[in-house]
Write a structure and sequence with these properties.
Length: 317
């Protein structure tokens, strides 16, 4: 900004910096999915993944909220990575800025349709365990004088931090996705230890409070359900799922498990996934099967970071 006095320029340089983070690795899938490993603050441990998934009518960016994770969900690769720290609001927004620049959304032009049109907090970390910074990031992204993204285009996914779920609607007015994965308390506690703290009854009560507070555009809750062979994929599991969520505006997103090295789980086969989906639909709940994306670029959450860290360790040892 050459039109500012030099003394002010120097003062701004000393007090502030514009740093979205640095892309350490970027992998492009044959299906157009791009996965990025982004480092912040020149800290070798401070790197996270962000994934851009282009589709015909929208482009969705999956962002991380923490470096590592404390929840240890048995089927999640990020669960093998210890929590290092929370991301700041600027680091969360930085993931969007990097993806938007790469997608040629900047510089903006009048009436431009953005390529990065939607954001989901479904990357590394539990967003509600970093609610202050996630909240600040969402407010920046939706501010009409900032990015100006419509709130209904943003979804926060949680593993079930029940007390904070209503705030996603009352304070942020964005969408909610719940990583459910089982409607049986014993099974869910086994694969998701957070269920021991916030069991299904408490989780569903918070979901009902969310619906009461949510705007019409954001009321429907997405329940994510990874399909694990022999663990949560029987007809009885499907019926139990419907019984659990039938009083809520709900969509069930069935996710074939994406295997990663060291995992003890296998994905349900495609026929079982389809039968499960049809059973849920036939009982009146919207359901779909997530189309796998980026299978050729270490798509499972946390894999690219682990691969990068392993290569670095091998180089330095």
């Amino acid at each position: 900004m050459a039109n500012l006095p030099r003394s002010l320029q120097q003062d701004l340089d000393q007090r502030y910096s514009i740093d979205y983070g640095r892309v350490l690795d970027s992998q492009l899938s044959v299906d157009g999915t791009r996965k990025m490993l982004i480092r912040f603050s020149n800290d070798p441990k401070a790197s996270v993944e962000a994934v851009f998934i282009p589709e015909d009518h929208r482009g969705t960016l999956c962002v991380s909220s923490q470096i590592g994770c404390s929840l240890s969900c048995r089927f999640c690769h990020t669960g093998t990575q210890a929590l290092y720290r929370n991301l700041t609001a600027s680091e969360i927004v930085g993931q969007y800025m990097i993806a938007a620049w790469m997608a040629k959304d900047f510089p903006k032009t009048l009436n431009q349709r953005p390529n990065v049109s939607n954001i989901v907090f479904m990357g590394q970390g539990e967003p509600l365990y970093n609610f202050r910074n996630v909240s600040a990031a969402v407010k920046t992204l939706t501010d009409k004088d900032g990015i100006g993204m419509a709130p209904w285009r943003i979804t926060i996914s949680t593993s079930g931090v029940a007390p904070l779920i209503p705030k996603i609607a009352s304070e942020l007015n964005v969408g909610l996705a719940v990583s459910l994965h089982s409607a049986n308390n014993d099974v869910r506690s086994e694969i998701m230890p957070i269920n021991k703290t916030y069991p299904l009854s408490q989780l569903m009560s918070s979901c009902r409070e969310f619906v009461k507070c949510a705007s019409p555009q954001s009321q429907r809750i997405t329940f994510e359900y990874v399909m694990l062979d022999g663990i949560n994929d029987t007809d009885a599991d499907a019926n139990r799922l419907v019984d659990l969520i039938r009083d809520l505006p709900a969509h069930v997103n069935l996710i074939p498990f994406n295997p990663w090295p060291g995992s003890s789980y296998r994905s349900s086969d495609s026929a079982r996934v389809l039968d499960f989906c049809n059973l849920v639909r036939n009982r009146g709940i919207h359901a779909s099967v997530r189309t796998p994306r980026g299978d050729d670029i270490l798509a499972a959450c946390g894999q690219l970071k682990s691969s990068h860290d392993s290569k670095k360790s091998a180089t330095t040892s």
